[in-house]
Design brief:
The chain has 296 residues and is of the alpha/beta class. The protein has nine helices and twelve strands.
């Protein structure tokens, strides 16, 4: 039976992965309490004890703005920890699937980024994730890097969808950035894609970089509008009347964001045999799931 070590099991992606990976083998999940990613020796120890065939690293430091001042911590969790996982996986002959981000790109393109495009991060978070990618590719022959974008889910802590629902219940007007464009990605679809990659390992040796997001393109503003439209139909308590589009310049943040970070999913679609669902379809599914969870 395939032994799978899942890091970040309590996060929004890890929670979904616990469901999708279980049919594929024996899953050993660890959260922040069980595995402190700032402790290299602890990482080696846990991997040594579990002796996994596959490591799925769904843990990350994701506070984009805080990373500007907590660079050391971001680099330790997003850069050093995956590198150590890669070294340990190499020793065991295991596969490492490491989740990365669209924020390793500078956002200056106007066509979807492919796996061959050169990373040029414009913030500390993106730089920390790039360090992790480099460490993983350099140290593990059987590594898969899966870049994704604008991730949200019903489980775990806050994300853009949950923030919009909370603010939309409290306020009648919100201002949201319109000139940053990307693809929202539901953890349900992302976790399914990762499970398909794990399954494909049995018949194929997949390595290298892949991109996975839902399909379609939108701005944060249009995403917010869609969230409120869909949530209203489902029955979420909202008092929001108006969403006002603003520019990035009107909403300065400590970390710069790429203006365009759409990822091409052609490569992974060929591997898993299906095209990712549209982001709006995925949003509807997530909101129904969240509504059921909050209604309990």
């Amino acid at each position: 039976m395939t032994r799978i070590l899942l890091t970040g099991m309590a996060g929004q992606l890890g929670s979904e992965l616990q469901q999708t990976l279980v049919p594929l083998g024996e899953v050993m999940g660890v959260d922040r309490q069980g595995l402190d990613l700032t402790q290299p020796d602890k990482i080696r120890q846990v991997i040594g004890e579990v002796q996994p065939d596959v490591i799925v690293n769904a843990a990350a430091y994701t506070a984009v703005d805080k990373a500007e001042t907590e660079t050391e911590l971001a680099n330790a969790i997003n850069g050093t920890a995956p590198t150590i996982m890669a070294e340990a996986a190499q020793e065991l002959g295991a596969t490492l699937i490491h989740v990365s981000t669209d924020y390793i790109f500078d956002g200056r393109k106007n066509t979807p980024y492919t796996e061959e495009d050169t990373p040029e991060p414009i913030n500390a978070y993106g730089q920390s994730k790039r360090l992790g990618e480099e460490g993983v590719l350099k140290n593990c022959d059987r590594a898969i890097i899966l870049r994704t974008a604008w991730v949200y889910g019903a489980q775990g802590k806050g994300n853009f969808v949950k923030t919009m629902l909370r603010l939309g219940a409290e306020r009648d007007e919100l201002r949201v950035v319109v000139d940053q464009v990307g693809t929202p990605t539901w953890t349900g679809d992302l976790a399914s894609a990762i499970a398909q990659l794990v399954q494909s390992l049995k018949s194929d040796t997949l390595t290298g970089i892949y991109h996975f997001t839902n399909s379609g393109v939108t701005s944060w503003y249009d995403f917010a509008v869609a969230i409120f439209e869909e949530a209203q139909q489902i029955g979420f308590p909202l008092q929001i009347k108006q969403v006002i589009p603003i520019t990035t310049a009107e909403y300065p943040t400590p970390a710069a964001r790429p203006a365009y970070s759409v990822l091409s999913t052609q490569k992974i679609s060929a591997v898993v045999g299906t095209h990712p669902p549209h982001w709006r379809t995925a949003l509807r599914q997530m909101l129904k799931q969240l509504y059921t969870l909050t209604a309990k």
